[in-house]
Amino acid sequence: MKKTLLFIILLAMPLLASAQIRFGYFSFDAMLKEMPEYVKAQADVDNLRRKYDSEMRRAEMEFNSKYEEFLEVQSTLVPTILRKRQTELQDLMEKNVEFRKDAERLLKQAETDALSPVRRRLAAAVAAVGKDQGYAFILNTDNDACPYINPEMGEDATELIKAQLTK
């Protein structure tokens, strides 16, 4: 009985191996960048970036102005006033550097927050297409993750995902 069962399993293995798995593939980044929500989110982040850049330029101009003023009068200052002004300039420079770091961190966080719902929507559309089409999986072809895909075994799911996003 065991030998018969083993024999049947061995005979069935080539049949199982020849069963083709259906899968899809698409570029997540390219699809994401085509979404209207992505364009709006990027515009919002770019607007915020311009505001931070403007403030950084203003702070830099303020520092440069105070530094030039300091250079002009430093030879006439008494040592205690000279040290006080040097300390003020150092503090201003440190605050500007700290602001720049905070701005970069806040911009990254704002971009993540703005794109998170867009990414979730795209992921949901991919899942829906995968389920509707009976795919075993859908590959993301970004960054040469899949340098070769046999078109006889998989299909480009880009148009199906676009259609799902417009529903």
β-strand amount: 5-15%
- SS summary, helix count: 5
Quantity of strands, as a count: 3
Widest sheet: strand ordering: 2-1-3
The assigned structural class equals mainly alpha
Radius of gyration: 30 Å
Largest sheet: 3 strands, parallel
* Helix content class: over 70%
Average residue pLDDT: 88
Give the low-confidence spans: none
Secondary-structure element order, N to C: HEHHHEEH
Approximate shape = rod-shaped
- What distance lies between the first and last C-alpha atoms, to the nearest angstrom? 55 Å
Please summarize what this structure is.
By secondary structure, the protein is mainly α.
Question: What's the SSE blueprint?
Answer:
Layout: H1 2-18, E1 23-26, H2 28-34, H3 36-73, H4 79-133, E2 137-140, E3 154-156, H5 158-165
Parallel strand pairs: 1-2, 1-3
